[in-house]
Amino acid sequence: MRLECPACAAAYDVPDSLLAPGRAVRCVRCAQSWVPVPPRLEAPPRRLALPPLRPSGPPAAPGLAGVAVAWAASLAAVAAGGAALWHWRAEIAAAWPPAARLLALLPQG
């Protein structure tokens, strides 16, 4: 049982077996004596009714069309990045000189 001193609010965790009904206890901090009152039994909280869950299972796999679109978008992004590197290779080399060796591998146009 958790006891709290009414004078100084010191809190103590005391096993129920050590507490006898009507027996006084004393606070170690302020020496106040009092008779602890057992907590009132409260009704358990009501549970709210929840709607039933839908059946669970593995997540639906994307269709073949969705995978094809994702691959096409990824390849288009890589191709656009390569085209941008080729088109602006001189500007990139001027802005970042270490990239000049890498950009020299691209075909000259």
Q: Would you write up a description of this structure?
A:
With 109 residues, this protein is of the alpha+beta class. It has helices at 64-87, 89-95, 99-103, and strands at residues 2-4, 11-13, 25-26, 33-34. The protein is elongated. The N and C termini lie far apart (85 Å).
Concise account of the structure shown:
The protein is elongated, with a radius of gyration of 37 Å. Helix content is 33%, strand content 9%.
Give the tags.
109 residues; two-stranded antiparallel sheet; single chain; 4 strands; two-stranded antiparallel ribbon
Write the layout of secondary structure elements.
Elements: E1 2-4, E2 11-13, E3 25-26, E4 33-34, H1 64-87, H2 89-95, H3 99-103
Antiparallel strand pairs: 1-2, 3-4
